[in-house]
Amino acid sequence: MTIDTSTINQPPQFHTLDDERQYRKERLAAVFRIFAKLGYEEGVMGHVSARDPERPDHYWTNPFGLSFSLIRASDLVLIGPDKKVVSGHGLVHPGGLLLHPQLLRGNPEIVSAAHTHSIYGRSWSTLNRLLDPLTAESAAFYRQHAIYDSFAGGEGDNLARAVERNKVILLRNHGILSVGRTVDEAAYWFISFERSCQAQLLAEAAGRPQPVGAEHAEAVAARTDARFGWLNFQPYYQAIVQEQPELLQ
């Protein structure tokens, strides 16, 4: 299979809503395959959404109980505002129903949200601390991530309001929730934040890491915008499609 890199610098434009829907579904299926390879799958826990471009109060997501490593675009289910399956086959993920409908309804600019129980994110979430801007990657989240106690505030409208302009919400004692204006962006923020949690845990185990200055961190966070998140997901997508092309089915 040959990868077309001619439009790699920016998200594509679509002639029809059907084309845009298929694009989002293929990217979403790829996210699950990538997350499986990276070890983010924990039993049946975890879900990622993609807003439908034609019906913005509907979203595509993984059917409950199907391994991330097996998901194809055709396996995804469309969930309507009544929280029932409108298209596709499978059970609705009960955890996803507590999060995605309210989050997408309350934040119309968001297209995708990702949450799994990845090991470093959920480990860091127990500390009730924001990440420090230790590296360029973690500086991307400087003042653009927040802590939210889902056990106290729930995962509905209160969480939707907490998202605001953040790239990531750190769910206390739970794990990472990332959001984006594209599926690609939400997935990259999740991957990068998980690795930043890992880096800080390792650095603090070794000694006393020193963060970069606030001015530098703010500049980095401002540069790493939605397009940056989309662009940095492309190598992951290229590799998984080459390796597992059946995910596009």
TrEMBL record:
One of its GO terms (cellular component) is cytoskeleton. It holds the Pfam family Aldolase_II. Residues 26-201 form the Class II aldolase/adducin N-terminal domain. Coiled coil: none annotated. GO terms for molecular function: actin filament binding. It comes from the Bacteria. SMART domains: Aldolase_II. SUPFAM superfamilies: AraD/HMP-PK domain-like. Gene3D superfamilies: Class II aldolase/adducin N-terminal domain (3.40.225.10). PANTHER family: ADDUCIN (PTHR10672), PROTEIN HU-LI TAI SHAO (PTHR10672:SF3). Belongs to the aldolase class II family. This is Class II aldolase/adducin family protein. It comes from Paenibacillus sabuli. The lineage of its organism: Bacteria, Bacillati, Bacillota, Bacilli, Bacillales.
